[in-house]
Amino acid sequence: MPDAAVDLIEEWTPDLADRSGPRYRAIAEAMEHDIRTGALPVGSRLPTHRDLAWRLNVTVGTVTRAYKEATTRGLIDGEIGRGTFVRDRRIRQWGAVADRGPATTIDFGPNFTPLSAETEGLFRETLAEVALDRTLGPMSGYEPSGGRIEHRARLADWIRTTGAPASAETTLITAGVQHGLAIVMTALFEPGDAIVCARLTHPGAKSLAIRRGLRLISVASDEDGVLPDALEAACRLNRPKGVFVIPTLDNPTSVIMSGQRRAQIAEVAARQDLIVVEDDVYRGFAPEAAAPIASLIPDRAVYLHSSSKHLAPGLRVGAMSAPEAWRPRLQPCLRDMMWMAPPSMVEVLIRWLDNGTAARMESEKREEMAGRQALVREMLAPYPIASHPTGLQAWLDLPEAWWGRNAAGALLEAGVSVTAGEVFETTSGAGRGQIRLALGCPNSRDTLSRGLNLIRSVLDNSPDQLGDFM
Q1: How far are the Cα atoms of 122, 165, 284, 285, 360 from residue 363, in angstroms, in the given order?
Q2: Are residues 204 and 315 in the same domain?
Q3: CATH number at residue 40
Q4: By the number of CB atoms within 10 A of the CB, which of 259, 272, 289, 328 ranks highest?
Q5: Are 96 and 51 found together in one domain?
Q6: Is 406 found in the same domain as 345?
């Protein structure tokens, strides 16, 4: 965008005349209106907080809150040293990427395991077995919130195979890890509480925290995960109540914390009286990973596990293990949200665990991902990539020419949907110049290969050669 156009946009003043409610929300709504009508095009640089506050005769805090609301809605992003910009909503919103591109788009957006005809066949076959098994009792009625005792006991066994502590009494059955996170953030935290997380983290956790009025405190990480000293410093400065971590195949960086780093994080959490929220949804792709943090401080940690990533995305069954003393707060929250995970889905998972299907599928999925990761390393060799040999994703550093430019938008125009780095950032600029590729999403290795070729063809050129999609 030429400088003159940028200067013109910086004079933007929202029309609040007919908008009721809090001023910050009115500003965000006016911004959304102007973005949708084209008055604020993608790539527009917005006024500074102070300038817009002066123009509207409101406090700087009101504008800051408005920009935060607009960021939550996926309208804008700030970049340190550059300003605040309107983002391309086709690629900005978490969970909406697949619905934004044409049917011909090769989708690298949603991070789930490769689907196959065999998985679909097994799913249908097991559902038919469950439907015909009269020994299970009524399948269409209510069951205890959090799952019946025998189901909880079996999923507690499943959790213990990871090294985390669990029993029927400490385990609740959820509809996946995202559901579990929603329960934890609602039941164990109050609006205004702070949660520490990495500067790049799972956007689902970030979205939940923001919507529940929690403060996210981002801290630095290295190739071994969240830095213990940074966590300690954040505790001194911000007095957080908890810390959110994905120690095994972190999303989006694919980092796997060493046993030593997990022990250090556990030590800080115990000393600072933190609630550890541990998302271990990707462990099936890295079974060699060290034991969960929850195994080190079982009285301070909530452990979340699920079948949807490594078995089938439609098998929305998760298990949460937490200290028994927290159950009176967690179980009512689960009940209030959706009462229970569907018993038929729980029964499918339990049968797969019991007959070895789950273990066999995990092995096959890892083998498939190994082949896909090898393709990525071969076809995108010139670009720095962070990934795991059998993991679901690749975290790609963009060429310098694409920094600050809408690479994800340019790729979408070329027929490839990816997730922009800004989606994962909890501090401004943390995801700048990076994109995540969900490698399990393309329906075959051939489709994956075609998509990687398209990515390479875009990134090998400069934005000026292709046209600026900002």
Answers
A1: 16, 24, 9, 8, 5
A2: yes
A3: 1.10.10.10
A4: 289
A5: no
A6: no
Q: Supply the DSSP string of 296-323, one letter for each residue.
A: T-TTTEEEEEESTTTT-TT---EEEE--
DSSP for 352-400 reads HHHHSHHHHHHHHHHHHHHHHHHHHHHHTTTS-EEE-TT-SEEEEEPPG
Model confidence pLDDT, tens digit, residues 453-464: 999 999 998 777
Structural domain range at position 25: 3-87
Residues 341 and 291 in one domain: yes
**How many other C-beta atoms can be found within 10 angstroms of the C-beta atom of residue 367?**
10
Crossing angle (nearest 10°) for helices 60-72 and 23-37: 50
Query: Can you read off the two tokens belonging to residue 359?
Result: 């273990």
Burial degree of 235 (CB within 10 A; 0-12, 13-18, 19+):
buried
Instruction: Please indicate, yes or no, whether residues 444 and 415 belong to a single structural domain of this protein.
Output: yes
- Interval 113-161: pLDDT, tens: 888 888 889 999 998 988 888 777 766 778 888 889 999 999 999 999 9
E strand or H helix at 348: helix 343-355
In order, the DSSP letters of 115-129 are P-HHHHHHHHHHHHH
* Residues 382, 443 within the same domain: yes
